[in-house]
Write a structure and sequence with these properties.
alpha+beta; two-stranded antiparallel ribbon; 14 strands; elongated
Length: about 375
């Protein structure tokens, strides 16, 4: 029982490390594809919203993009921050300026969308901070000086709806307005600018070919397809993959040693029994088969318990890591995939087979006469 529990712990760690090695990458890929946009355009040399840099000439860039027949939809997005006075408090939030007819940044939940220039929608976290209801008028500002407690770029907006921001961080207050409204809040410096373009290509078109075309036609931006974004994420997450590989290999090796030790001790204790079996005509192959099956049985039972334990611990660890500031709440570090469970189970079964080879060889090589004599004397 102790050996099975030990294998279960090793299996749980192995499964968690397999899930960690691929989970964040796959969840990020699913997040990028969730709204159907294939390409993102960011300011040259940056990733989307990595910096406060913006792309000038939105109208001209939109015209160039529309000239490509493979491009179906274009969604320019302007990012920024807003400040809303609530009594003696200042409530700040991230804000997106979008076109509601083609946006892919939030999922509208209730109320009315931003169909008019004076409308604003917010997520749950911002609504709780504001303690506001649909229909309330908010004094929204683009800037705030905490020393003088003065606001700049102030405008009255009506809270019309609630939304869930797909790429927003956990517990991050966020809101959305029309892009022209956010441009007006920011003044002339933000006129005809965007922080990001989201591009959807027609069905059957190659996003990477369109990305290469954009890079040639609009050299002032960085064009990122889903494939290139995942490559960037892979580079940034190389530490997690290395850590997962090392801990997974250690857990697999510990499970292997545990099963090998237990089966070897079992063979030593049953040396007389094995010698009797050999003396009455049981073949070496049958003895080897019995010992290997014993090792596999311990590994399989421990692996089944370990899979359940691994899923529970993965869910707990994911809740801790997902609370890291700045991460989209849709990102999972530990993403369960059937392939990961089968991989962990296959590795453990293979480990059980190899763990039984040495003790099986010892059992098959026992000298029959000497073992029987030693057993009789004992």
């Amino acid at each position: 029982m102790l050996a099975v529990l030990g294998v279960a712990v090793a299996t749980a760690m192995l499964l968690d490390m397999v899930m960690l090695a691929t989970g964040m990458r796959e969840s990020f890929r699913e997040l990028l594809l969730s709204q159907g946009f294939d390409i993102r355009l960011a300011p040259k040399g940056t990733l989307p919203f990595d910096t406060d840099a913006t792309i000038p000439g939105v109208s001209a860039i939109t015209g160039v993009l529309r000239s490509n027949p493979d491009i179906r939809e274009i969604s320019p997005v302007l990012g920024g921050s807003i400040h809303i006075p609530v009594g003696a408090r200042d409530v700040s939030a991230a804000v997106l300026g979008v076109d509601p007819t083609v946006q892919g940044d939030y999922e509208f939940l209730s109320g009315r969308d931003i169909t008019t220039p004076d409308a604003i929608v917010a997520n749950d976290y911002l609504l709780k901070k504001l303690r506001a209801s649909f229909g309330d008028t908010l004094n929204v500002s683009a800037g705030y000086d905490p020393q003088t407690r003065t606001y700049s770029g102030q405008r009255k907006l009506v809270l019309t709806g609630k939304a869930r921001f797909i790429y927003g961080a956990t517990e991050q207050p966020a809101a959305a307005v029309r892009r022209e409204t956010l441009e007006a809040l920011g003044g002339g410096a933000r006129r005809d600018r965007a922080s990001l373009f989201m591009v959807r290509v027609r069905k059957g078109a190659n996003p990477d070919s369109v990305r290469d075309w954009i890079a040639t036609q609009i050299p002032g931006v960085t064009a990122i397809s889903v494939a290139t974004a995942i490559q960037e994420v892979d580079q940034r997450l190389s530490y997690f993959r290395q850590l997962a590989f090392i801990l997974g290999a250690v857990s697999l090796f510990v499970g292997f040693l545990l099963v090998t030790t237990l089966v070897t001790v079992s063979v030593n204790e049953r040396a007389g029994e094995i010698a009797v079996m050999r003396a009455i005509g049981v073949s070496r192959a049958h003895v080897v088969q019995q010992i290997v099956i014993e090792g596999v049985a311990i590994s399989v039972v421990g692996a089944i318990i370990g899979l359940a334990l691994g899923l529970v611990t993965a869910r707990y660890l994911n809740s801790i890591l997902s609370a890291f500031p700045g991460l989209p709440m849709a990102i999972d570090f530990f993403l369960f995939q059937p392939r990961a469970a089968w991989s962990a189970l296959g590795l453990l079964v293979g480990s059980g087979i190899f763990a039984g080879i040495y003790p099986a060889w010892r059992a098959a090589s026992l000298p029959i006469a000497e073992s029987l004599r030693r057993e009789a004397i004992a």
